[in-house]
């Protein structure tokens, strides 16, 4: 625990200030934190799962034995500095942590944070202990930059500003570029730019903000963040009363239509595909900034004014519900835009006298002044779970104090991409402490994520974290002074502190565990009021809930940020290479907490390992199912479960929450509207949704599941407003089920009446035929061209759902030359090439019952009929393992010219898809697709982390650090 040195005079102008007196809490006096853990050497070799190529190799790196292979791989590849293979390359976690901690400690000494050198040394040991034992982590830019010759950029989140001038717009492009180059993301609000419905001073018509978004999007798509393969992350916000709001809302939805059209024409439109770069607006998250006035108009069904940017005059009156429906429909179609609730955000703003909050960072958790930045750090909540499965609030509070102190120190030496950002950050000193592993913590405590108990626990922890942070901020203000902008915002800042305290008083605890944490939070908020009144505050903001993608893996967290567990089964790398499927280790701990015996726990875990869920698990009581609900799978959490958890924690955060509410594919536009409306009513600052399979530009699962919903470019229902009744227009459209990139195929050579040919057929993972590729005649001949065209037509038809039996019925028994004997024992005579081809496909892909109805039998079946009088196969017997084995498919090695648009199978060997991440493992178990992009670095399927995606293989993220 830390405290202000006794007798220090604080808060008065020119008063003598002394440093912090540090009490040792985590480390052991006389023993360095490194000496308390066991170390080992490891080889870090990272390969691309798709190509097998080695993308990184460093041998003999040093880590604690308690760190997982995954954590050491990610830290070595992402955070170790120096050229690989050189003498200056970092090779030990000790070097990495020392580089960070010693820089922070020196800066703390130089800027008067510590009472004595001994206090500084204790601070260094405490911070080192917390990092090496994975109790918390700074955000990625700290690990990238601190203690290196590079600029000491420590912030991951930036907010920019742009005005209605060409100089400002071009400067926006430039500033974003430098931020992306440094490995961070930025957001801004474009609402100051005149709309395309307003005039320029020259008399012409303005271009509007959406047109300028094109240039910024192209820039973001070109610049690779931090010299890695991760693309730039950005947020674009537009106010709901901007005259171009409809164009902005529908921008990305219309681009998704373009993606579908190009995909269906044969272009590679997967994320990272060769042709996806031709599509615009794909590098930013879009959000609409809505006001209470607009939301009340939506509730009341009244009109809403769109206003000119310069004069504020009304340009157009629109139906609020109609505009809200368009926003929700666009989000239903492509997951954009999200909503940011402007009045709620600014009601919790500590610096309104300086300016309004108009935008956020890319993941929407940092919300503050324009031209500002925020450095983040997150605690691993599961580390504070005691042996009796209660949360150690006192230890957690002490850790928060150390971390907030370090985060504030970093602003003293940090570099910034632009001087306006640096000036604002130094004047307001925004921090973003948060946490990870909430989902795992609640499960281990036997609390359902979507339960009153789970929300009470989460709210109490979040309240304690922010209360303790502001308490420390007030203590620091008494030592090194409040932030420069505090004087003009003092009353507003203290008002927000009272709002936090009042929200804490409304938390309804349900058990001893959460009530103990809540009592600590109550004490902390009382101290915030007392110390803040005397000293002011060192930091304008203290807390956010970030995605914690890469740093979550660094801490070996099971869950990221505020998220629930992704799934109950995990993909785990092993020391020495290889991997294995395991059941989340939090599950047996939770079962033990709920009173199950070892034999019962073993049976339940075995059931989960086989099925991926707890439904019908032997001995598990149904009332305990909710404890094991996850983001994905058979018992996926309901969308409002996510919203309610966010609402429980939001009143105790300075910023907001990076989180996406997941919806099933068959969700409706009206459900999206309800989520957005309830999020506003529950006091959230921002909400984003994602409906399964709504985006094309992401590689989908190739497991057993099918896309059972309708095409994402067709609204489930378009509700026409009417005076007396609602008219619902249902539009039906076929959905193309594309083949996986690597699929099972068979190639057959044949002769019919002396004419030779080759047929390659490819199947989906569920065994259904998806393509046919015929080779007849010489390349360039009319016959070869006709066969290519026929193959394309048939393959597209199959992928759009035309049943194979329909083709068989239409094309068998066609008569034309060549005809006669074949070399196929199952089809001895054919009346034409088409007759043979479709009989062969029927034998290969149709079940016996359907073939028999059309009189198509194999040679074995005809022989059986002669012997027994029945064509039907004899029922197979044997072990379950034998019956589940996949048949071996013989592939004939032939020279097939692949000029058709319909691609033949990429490999002549039929292989079962192997899981390389938890996302792929869940797909394999459940047979349902997980909508996530593939990692640019290692080719594996990423999994959701807040509003972003993170790769379990290498730690790469799709956006936020």
Describe the model.
By secondary structure, this protein is of the alpha/beta class. Among the domains are: 1-133, no CATH class; 568-629, no CATH class; 745-874, no CATH class. The chain has 28 helices and 28 strands. The strands form 10 sheets. Strands 5, 6, 7, 8, 9, 12, 13, 14 and 18 form a 9-stranded mixed β-sheet that branches. Strands 22-23-24 form a 3-stranded antiparallel β-sheet. Strands 1-2 form a two-stranded antiparallel sheet. A hairpin with a 5-residue loop joins strand 23 and strand 24. The longest helix has 29 residues, at 452-480. The radius of gyration is 31 Å and the shape is globular. The relative contact order is 0.10. The model is unreliable at 1-15, 225-230, 698-732 and 875-912 (pLDDT under 50). InterPro entries: RdRp_reductase_class-2 (IPR050862), RNR_2_N (IPR013678), RNR_lg_C (IPR000788), RNR_NrdJ/NrdZ (IPR013344), TSCPD_dom (IPR024434). Its cofactor is adenosylcob(III)alamin. Keywords: Cobalamin, Cobalt, Disulfide bond, DNA synthesis, Nucleotide-binding, Oxidoreductase.
Please provide the count of β strands: 28
Structural class: alpha/beta
Overall outline = globular
Taken as a percent bin, the fraction of beta residues is 5-15%
Distance linking N and C termini? 30 Å
Measured as a percent range, the helix fraction is: 25-40%
Tally of individual helices? 28
Task: Give a short account of the largest sheet.
Answer: 9 strands, mixed
Low-confidence stretches: 1-15, 225-230, 698-732, 875-912
Rg for CA atoms: 31 Å
Q: What is the mean predicted local confidence, pLDDT?
A: 85
């Amino acid at each position: 625990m830390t405290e202000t040195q006794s007798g220090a005079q604080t808060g008065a102008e020119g008063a003598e200030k002394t440093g912090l007196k540090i009490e040792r809490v985590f480390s052991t006096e006389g023993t360095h934190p490194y000496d308390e853990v066991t170390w080992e050497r490891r080889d870090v070799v990272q390969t691309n799962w798709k190509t097998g190529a080695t993308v990184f190799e460093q041998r003999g790196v040093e880590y604690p034995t308690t760190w997982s292979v995954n954590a050491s791989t990610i830290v070595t590849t992402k955070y170790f500095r120096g050229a690989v293979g050189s003498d200056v390359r970092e090779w030990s976690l000790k070097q990495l942590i020392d580089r960070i901690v010693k820089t922070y400690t020196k800066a703390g000494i130089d800027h008067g944070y510590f009472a004595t050198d001994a206090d500084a040394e204790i601070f260094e040991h405490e911070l080192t202990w917390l990092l090496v034992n994975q109790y918390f982590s700074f955000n990625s830019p700290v690990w990238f930059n601190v203690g290196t010759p590079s600029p000491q950029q420590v912030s991951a989140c930036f907010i920019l500003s742009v005005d209605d001038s060409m100089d400002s717009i071009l400067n926006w492009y430039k500033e974003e570029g430098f931020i992306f180059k440094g490995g961070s993301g930025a957001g801004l609000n474009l609402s100051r730019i005149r709309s395309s419905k307003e005039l320029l001073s020259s008399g012409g018509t303005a271009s509007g903000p959406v047109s300028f978004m094109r240039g910024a999007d192209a820039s973001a798509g070109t610049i690779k963040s931090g010299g890695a393969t991760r693309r730039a992350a950005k947020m674009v916000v537009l106010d709901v009363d901007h005259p171009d709001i409809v164009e902005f809302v529908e921008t990305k939805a219309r681009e998704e239509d373009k993606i579908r059209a190009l995909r269906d024409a044969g272009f590679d439109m997967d994320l990272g595909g060769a042709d996806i770069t031709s599509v615009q607006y794909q590098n930013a998250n879009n959000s609409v900034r809505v006001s209470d006035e607009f939301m009340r108009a939506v509730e009341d069904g009244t009109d809403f004014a769109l206003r000119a940017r310069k004069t504020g005059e009304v340009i157009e009156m629109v139906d609020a519900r109609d505009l809200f429906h368009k926003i929700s429909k666009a989000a239903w179609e492509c997951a954009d835009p999200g909503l940011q609730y402007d009045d709620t955000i600014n009601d919790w703003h500590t610096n309104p006298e300086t300016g309004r909050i108009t935008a956020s960072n890319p993941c929407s958790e940092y919300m503050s002044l324009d031209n500002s930045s925020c450095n983040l750090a997150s605690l691993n909540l599961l580390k504070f779970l005691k042996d009796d499965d209660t949360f150690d609030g006192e230890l957690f509070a002490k850790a928060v104090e150390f971390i907030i102190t370090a985060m504030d120190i970093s602003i003293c030496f940090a570099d910034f991409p632009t001087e306006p950002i640096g000036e604002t950050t130094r004047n307001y000193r925004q921090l973003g402490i948060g946490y990870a592993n909430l989902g795992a913590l609640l499960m281990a405590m036997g609390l359902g994520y979507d339960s009153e108990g789970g929300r009470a626990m989460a709210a109490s922890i979040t309240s304690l974290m922010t209360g303790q942070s502001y308490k420390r901020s007030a203590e620091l203000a008494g030592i090194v002074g409040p932030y420069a902008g505090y004087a003009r915002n003092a009353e507003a800042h203290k008002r927000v502190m009272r709002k936090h305290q009042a929200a804490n008083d409304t938390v309804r605890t349900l058990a001893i565990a959460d009530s103990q944490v809540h009592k600590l939070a109550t004490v902390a908020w009382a101290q915030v009021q007392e110390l803040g009144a005397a000293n002011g505050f060192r930091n304008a903001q203290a807390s956010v809930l970030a995605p914690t993608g890469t740093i979550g893996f660094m801490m070996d967290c099971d869950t990221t940020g505020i998220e629930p567990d992704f799934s109950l089964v995990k993909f785990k790398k092993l020391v020495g290479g290889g991997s294995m499927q395991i059941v989340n280790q939090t599950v047996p701990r939770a079962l033990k907490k709920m009173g199950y015996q070892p034999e019962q726990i073993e049976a339940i875990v075995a059931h989960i390992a086989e099925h991926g869920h707890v439904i019908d698990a032997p001995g598990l009581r149904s009332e305990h199912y909710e404890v094991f609900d996850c983001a994905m799978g058979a018992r996926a959490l309901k969308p409002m479960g996510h919203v309610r958890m966010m609402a429980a924690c939001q009143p105790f955060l300075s910023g907001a929450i990076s989180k996406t509410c997941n919806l099933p594919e068959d969700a409706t536009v009206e459900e999206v509207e309800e989520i957005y409306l309830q999020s506003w009513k529950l006091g959230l600052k921002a909400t984003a949704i994602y409906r399964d399979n709504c985006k094309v530009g992401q590689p989908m699962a190739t497991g057993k599941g099918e896309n059972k919903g309708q095409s994402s470019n067709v609204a489930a229902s378009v509700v026409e407003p009417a005076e007396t009744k609602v008219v619902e227009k249902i539009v039906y459209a076929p959905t193309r089920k594309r083949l996986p990139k690597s699929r099972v195929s068979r190639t057959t050579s044949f002769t019919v009446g002396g004419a030779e040919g080759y047929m390659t057929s490819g199947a989906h993972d569920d065994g259904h035929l998806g393509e046919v590729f015929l080779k007849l005649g010489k390349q360039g001949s009319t016959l070869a061209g006709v066969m290519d065209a026929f193959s394309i037509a048939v393959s597209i038809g199959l992928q759009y759902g035309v049943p194979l039996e329909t083709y068989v019925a239409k094309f068998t028994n066609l008569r034309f030359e060549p005809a006669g004997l074949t070399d196929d024992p199952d089809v001895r005579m054919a009346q034409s090439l088409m007759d043979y081809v479709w009989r062969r496909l029927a034998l290969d892909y149709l079940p016996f019952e359907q073939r028999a109805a059309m009189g198509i039998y194999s040679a074995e079946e005809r022989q059986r009929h002669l012997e027994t009088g029945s064509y039907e196969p004899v029922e197979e017997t044997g072990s379950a393992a034998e019956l589940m084995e996949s048949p071996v498919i013989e592939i004939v090695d032939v020279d097939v010219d692949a000029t058709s648009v319909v691609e033949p199978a990429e490999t002549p060997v039929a292989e079962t898809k192997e899981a390389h991440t938890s996302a792929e493992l869940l797909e394999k178990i459940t047979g349902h697709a997980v909508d996530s992009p593939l990692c640019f670095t290692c080719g594996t399927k990423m999994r959701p982390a807040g509003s972003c995606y993170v790769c379990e293989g290498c730690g790469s993220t799709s956006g936020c650090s």
